[in-house]
Structure formats: structure tokens, C-alpha cells
TrEMBL record:
Transmembrane portions of the chain: 38-59, 159-182, 203-226, 232-252
The organism's place on the tree of life at top rank: Bacteria
CDD domains found in the cross-reference section: Delta6-FADS-like
Keywords attached to this entry: Membrane, Transmembrane, Transmembrane helix
Protein name: Fatty acid desaturase family protein
Species annotation: Bacterioplanoides pacificum
Amino acid sequence: MNSIHFPSGQRELYQGLSQRINQYFKQQHSHKSGNPALYRKAAVISLLFISSFAAIFVVPAGWNWLAWIGHGIATALVGFNIMHDGAHESFSRSRSVNRIAALSFNLIGSNRFYWAQKHNRNHHTFTNVDEIDEDIDAFGLFRMSPNQPRYRFHRWQHIYAWMLYPLTSLFWFFVLDYKAYFSRKIATRPFSQAMTLADHLEFWFSKALYLALYLLLPASVLGWSLTLSGFLLMHAVLGFLFAVVFQLAHVVDKAEFPRPQSDEQQGGQAGQMGHEWAEHQLKTTVDFATHSRWITWALGGLNFQVEHHLFPRVSHIHYPQLHQLLRQECQQRNLTLRSYPSLPAALRGHYNHLRQLGRG
């Protein structure tokens, strides 16, 4: 798996797209990072996050569950809008501000270093490639790619998936993070760099801080019964939102799941992908609901996944404009920009994909 690569010297499509995008920012006298509109949104979401957390301690016991649900939604908003841009160094022109934004992932339960390896390096490079992209690896519980083995119980995966998605963030924060930490791998691919002493300290300190903030502190005020039920409810909301939003970009019936070509296909160059990286992204990534300003605001532009995958260091605040430019470039090159017109259509695309693969 570590030998998988894209054809060397083939970057014509990406260079053409980049030229158009760079020209746009030059004409607009704008920078690719966040702008005041993003910072205002970040301030609103941060206020929602802090106030919903405070509400857990002050809302009466009979209504306390609403505060936990609200905080689960607010946590997802932080992940979609602040952490994600910060991790891709597109939130701000300042590296320090980007790092602070990325560190919000530690505050909401996971780890900045792990995310950089899992998401930035593996997922963004080898999208929908088995054994490298951990986003399509469900340990056999789901069959997300046609290249994965099919088991008899997959026949019902389009039904039971929705009942398991609420467990996503719990499994992510309390299993996958530790699995990656101790194995030093994401799926089958080793970390691209060794963890420093600061990275190790950050990992354990943030995990301890999370447990203190979300279990020990609430339990000292509310008691363990109310705390545990609320904590699980919060993660059910957070996990479902995380799972569904990220699945709609790649695990749908409009996306492809390319495989590296064999020795015979490549004349001895085992592991080479069939297309250049930019075309690979166009084949494996799908937009949805690009006309909805509300969905774009709430999801931090994650409904513009094609734009994000091609230009991850451009802030999501610019994606609607990039979408038009990308569409024009694809039309000129006779390439397909894959997209669903609405959120319900994308959900159907995901449902149909699971159903089809489950039935073989």
C-alpha cells in the first residue's frame, strides 16, 4: 500500500484549475484564507459552543437533555467551520491562529496530529482507495467500496447503518485515536512523521482534559446518571452529524472507487493510479446542495467537497465562487463535476450506494 502513487509528471488538469483559481483571487484582490465573514461566523459558533456547555450545568434536570443535544450540535459546528479550516491552514493567514483553530479538535475530543495524518495526508491524497483511506474502512461492518469483501449481513447495511452512525464520534475518539497512537499508522500506512515529545504530551493532556470537562466536572454537579446519559446523547447527535456529512461526499452512488493498477497494466509499475491526482478527486468526490446558503453556512462548505479536495488550503468561505469557476473549467475540458441538487438527493445517493453494495 505504501507504494501506491499517481502518474509522475501528469499535473496538467491541476495546473489549469490552479491558474483559473489564482487569477480569480488576484482579480478580487483577495486572499485564499478566511475573511471577516468567516471570523464573524466563528465568533457566533464559539458563543454557541460555550453557552451550550454552560447550559448543561444550569438547565433543570428535566430539560437537561436539551442542553446536551444543543452542545452536540454546537460541537459539530465547531468541527465543520473552525477546526477543519484550521487543520488545513486556511482559517487565517497566521500560522498561530490556524494552529489554535486546529487545536479545537483536541477540545472537542480528538487530536490535531491524528487528524492531520488521517485526513490531510491519507484521505485527501488517496480518496476512496481501499486500505489507505480510513474513511471507507469500517472493519468489515459496512461494505463501502465495491473492492471490499461482501458478507451476508451487508444485505441490510442500508438499514442498520443509520442506527450505528450515532456511535461514530465515540468510536472515533475512544478507539481509533488510540489505535493510531499506539500503532503509529492510519489504516495500513505509517505516519508521515514521528510524533515529537510535544505531540505526545498534547495527546495525553487533551484526552485527560476532555474526560475532566465532559465527565468528571458534570458528574460533580449533576451526578453520574444524568452525566452519562447526557454525554451519550451528545455523542449520538455529534456522531450522526459527523458520519452523515462526510459520507455524503464520497460514499454515494455517483462516486468512484479506483484501484491501483497491476504490474501487467502498468508494465511493471505496480501501484500506480490510473489518472492524475486532480482527475482522481473529480471521480471520487461529490458536491451536494450547492445552492443552499444555510447548508453551506452550517456545514462549513463541506457540501462543496470537490472544491475542498482540489484546493484544501482555500477557506470554505470562498467555495461558492470556486464552484462556478470549477464548473466552467470542467465544461471546457469535457469533465464531469459530480453533484446532487439537494441534501435529500445526496442522502438517497448514500442509501442507494449502501443498498447496492450490500446486495452485491
